[in-house]
Amino acid sequence: MNLGGAVKVNKCAVITFIGIVLFIIYVLSATSSTIESLKKSSKNEVNLRKLIIGLILAAKSGGNQVIKISNEPDFGGVKTKGKTQEGVNDYITLADVNSHCQIAYSLWHIFPNLNLISEEDVQKKNCPTDLDFFDLDPSVLGNVQLPDIHVPAQDLTLWIDPLDATKEFTEKLFQYVSVMICVADKKGEAIAGVVYFPFSKRLYWSWRGHGVSENLANIKADLDDNVQNPIAIVSLSHAGKVKDLAKSMLGEKTSIIGAAGSGYKIVQVLEGNATIYLHNTRIKKWDLCAGNALINSVGGRMVTLKRDKISYSANSDHLVEDGLLVEINNHVVNKT
Ligand SMILES: *[C@@H]1O[C@H](CO)[C@@H](O)[C@H](O)[C@H]1NC(C)=O
Fold first, then answer.
1. What average pLDDT does the segment 269-284 reach?
2. SS3 state at 68
3. Residue nearest to atom 4 of ligand 1 (CA)
4. Which of 170, 222, 290, 296 stands the most exposed, by the fewest C-beta atoms within 10 Å?
5. 267 lines ligand 1 (CB under 6 A)
6. Rounded to 5 degrees, what angle do the CA atoms 280, 285, 289 make?
């Protein structure tokens, strides 16, 4: 009996000892892997709250470059990149270049591992020397509180339009001009976006599930709402054909507004000044991604005319071939 008791005690001691050893091994390995992941995070992880602040400041400082060039004779020299599918000249000015430089290099300065896809592609040596390398000042969020969420930089793709509506910029139709920056996640969904109008200083931003700029806070999609006097906003350069399409969707009473800039047209839908934004030719994804993030954040829809969602993943085509339909109210998507 005594012997059995002693064996029992020894068994207990052995089990406890093994337990302690295993626990120590666990703690050590957990600590070293924490240190590993801390090391990694400082290099490859992005704090999305900080990134949102960075996007807002980058869009504003890009807009400042646009304003600077708007005061120069001939906008620093207007060039054309060829013609669009509609036969309209595809212009580029020093404002497009300098705004791209400002946005790309200020963001890379803080978030060096970000993958950026921009309408322009400019080497640093061709950039202006007065780039603004801002600090991440959280006051640009106003009263909105955002959480710190860390994601690997390689899961994100940023789509940048440093100057939307370049042609109208050269015609001094400055109200249409915007600067757009967007974040897509690894599924290719637009999760955050900033649209900034440098000449009116209006700025809209959203981060899916976490916050929107104060000017979007009271906008909520009402997808069952039937609009009595629908308004379709369409591109100035090809209003004709889209008109018929708009009437077939929304009825004969539909009025048509011609406007430029996809950023501008998307914001008109958000603000209730247009029922729907329609486009029936090809369009580039940097024209859409930021606006898509804003539209998603209020519960609206942005789809192609075939009713497909748009993927913004890094390896996807830069062109949307099947046109565009944007709405926050009238439920056209489900009706037609
Ligand atoms: C929407 O229309 C109203 C009234 O015409 C105007 O004051 C407002 O500036 C428009 N919103 C935008 C974003 O242009």
1. 94
2. helix
3. 273
4. 222
5. yes
6. 110
Q: Does domain 46-216 have CATH number 3.30.540.10?
A: yes
Q: Using one digit for the tens of pLDDT, what is the confidence trace for 224-273?
A: 667 788 999 999 876 678 889 999 988 899 999 999 999 999 999 999 99
- pLDDT the model gives residue 80: 81
Residue 132 annotated in ligand binding: no
Ligand 1: nearest atom to the Cα of 273: 1
Q: Give, in degrees to the nearest 5, the angle at Cα 245 between 242 and 249.
A: 140
Ligand 1 centroid distance, CA of 274 (Å): 10
Say whether 287 counts as a known binding-site residue: yes
In the CATH hierarchy, which fold is given to the domain comprising 231-327?
D-Maltodextrin-Binding Protein; domain 2 (3.40.190)
Alpha carbon of 273 to ligand 1 centroid (Å): 6
Residues of the chain within CATH 3.40.190.80 domain(s) are 231-327
Query: Taking a C-beta distance cutoff of 8 angstroms, is the pair 114, 153 a contact?
Result: yes
Alpha carbon of residue 162 to chain centroid: 12
Q: Is 164 annotated to bind ligand?
A: yes
Residues of the chain with CATH 3.30.540.10: 46-216
